[in-house]
Specification:
CATH architecture of the largest domain: 2-Layer Sandwich
Protein name: HECT domain-containing protein
Organism: Candolleomyces eurysporus
Shape: elongated
Pfam families: HECT (PF00632)
Distance between the termini: 31 Å
Number of helices: 11
InterPro entries: HECT_dom, Hect_E3_ubiquitin_ligase, HECTD1/TRIP12-like
Number of domains: 2
Radius of gyration: 26 Å
Structural class: mainly alpha
Strand content: 5-15%
Number of strands: 4
CATH topology of the largest domain: Hect, E3 ligase catalytic domain
Order of helices and strands: HHHHHHHHEHHEEEH
CATH superfamily of the largest domain: Hect, E3 ligase catalytic domain
GO molecular function: ubiquitin protein ligase activity
Length: about 280
Amino acid sequence: MLDSRIIDLSFNKVFLKIVLGEEVPVTISTLKLVDLELANSLTQLQKIASESGDEPTDKLSRKIAAIEKVKVEDLALDFTIPGYDIELRPGGRDIAVTSENVYEYIEEVLDAIIGKGVQVQAKAFKEGFSKVFPVTDLRAFTADELVMLFGNSDEDWTIETLSEAVKADHGFNVESRAIRFLLGVMSEFDGPTRRAFLQFITGSPKLPIGGFKGLNPPLTVVRKPHEAPLTADDYLPSVMTCVNYLKLPEYSTKEMMKEKLRVAIQEGVGSFHLS
């Protein structure tokens, strides 16, 4: 925190609120921050349970209703945590969820996932964490701020942001074709590739606070020369991790650059050479 470096740990905001002793509503809205798919399923279950049973009048509506109309009993649910063989109550796996007890089921699922069901784990975390740093001192931060400090905040990888943050030098400028290729490739990375790329370039899988603009020194891209009879396409990019310095051959196509970066990122893990 003192040097603005991100800790590579991912904590959910709801869990951090529980750890900090903040009040966490045990509702489907809160569950959406933890497990969106399950929250949507419980919302749909509520909808099924609350159907009025009024019959549609026109022919088309009756056909649609016949397809969509499902009873709670048809779902073959029991009183266990969805996806786990953990009973919500004693003998829960032998208790069917019906229209009469469906709201009890929803309440018990919510309580198990974001209520009393995680209190023991949160207590153990607080005790372990406090052996290194007092958890109570973390209350100076909000849960959102802690999420950011622990490296779970969204990062901006748009071309606009990258173009403002990346420094082109020694053979390249911001208008160079290779720089345009690179920004395009970077903006298309998925989550795991972003982490691997950052590890390759900076030695850390996470950006500092402030994103790319927070890198110090800034990410610098320079032209990597080639020697005849070889061409740029025969070389892999290389880096000087300690100064966030990327040596990039002037590849013939964007696709070639993307492939060479992929190989360098995957095969260069743990490699170290004097430059």
